[in-house]
Amino acid sequence: MTEFLLILVSTVLVNNFVLVKFLGLCPFMGVSRKLETATGMALATTFVLTLSSICSYLVNTYLLAPFELEYLRTITFILVIAVVVQLTEMVVHKTSPLLYQVLGIYLPLITTNCAVLGVALLNVQAELSFFESAVYGFGASVGFSLVLILFAAMRERITVADVPVAFRGPAIALVTAGLMSMAFMGFSGLIKA
Amino acid sequence: MKKLFRFPGGIEVPQYKEISITQATKKAKLPARLVLPLHQHIGAPAEPIVAEGEIVLKGQKIAHATDYVSAPIHAPTSGTVSYIGDREAPHPSGMRAPCIEIIPDGKETWVELTSHARDYTALDPSSLRNVIREAGIVGLGGAGFPSYIKLNPGPGREIETLIINGIECEPYITCDDMLMRERADEIVAGVLVIQHALQAKRTVIAIEDNKPEAIESVKSAIKQLAEDLIDVAVIPTIYPAGSEKQLVYAITGEEVPSEGLPVQVGVVCQNIGTVAAVYRAVHHGEPLISRYVTITGDVDSPQNLEVLFGTIVEELVAQCSDNVQDIKRLIIGGPMMGFAMHSLNIPLIKTSNCVLVDRGRHSQFSGREHIMPCIRCGACAQVCPIKLLPQQLYWYAKAEDLDQVQNYNLFDCIECGCCDYVCPSHIPLVQYYRFAKGEIWQREEERLKSDKARLRHEFRERRIERDKQEAEERRRLKKEALHKKATNAENKDPADEKNDPKKAAILAAMERVREKKSSQKINPKNTDNLSKKQHQLIDEIDERRKRQRQDEQQSGVD
Amino acid sequence: MLSAILVLVLLALVFGLLLGYASIRFKVEGEPLVEQIDSLLPQTQCGQCGFPGCKPYATAIANEEADINQCPPGGEATIHALADLLDREPIPLNPENGEEAPKTIAIINESDCIGCTLCIQACPVDAILGAAKQMHTVIEIECTGCELCVPPCPVDCIDMVAVENNIEQWNWPSPIKALEAPLVFLETTKSSAGKASS
Question: Between the CA of residue C118 and those of A14, B461, C105, C154, what are the distances in Å?
Answer without folding.
Answer: 74, 17, 18, 8
